[in-house]
Amino acid sequence: MSSSAPTPPGEPAPFLTLHAALVLLTAAVIGLFIGGLTFLGGASVAGSVLAGMVGGGGSVPVLRSLIGS
Q: Largest Cα–Cα distance in the chain?
């Protein structure tokens, strides 16, 4: 299903595809949003960071399937 254009000889392949960069950036924004809301809700900093990491990490598989490649 992934149809990436071949890179010309002599040019290095991209470090991340556009799809992967978009998925990871969106997951980071979701994690920051969830962590911020958790902190504003009265949780400790450690709890807020943990909630943001779980929210961001858990959203990666969903975003990968939702955002077309």
A: 55
**C-beta of residue 67 within 8 angstroms of C-beta of residue 26:** yes
- Per-residue pLDDT of 22-68, as tens digits, reads 999 999 999 999 999 999 999 999 999 999 999 999 999 999 999 87
Q: Please, which pLDDT band fits residue 1 given cuts at 50, 70 and 90?
A: low
Question: Which residues make Cβ contacts (< 8 Å) with residue 17, sequence separation at least 6?
Answer: 4, 69
Residue 6: C-alpha distances to residues 2, 3, 11 (Å): 12, 9, 10
Residues ≥6 apart with Cβ < 8 Å to 26? 59, 63, 67
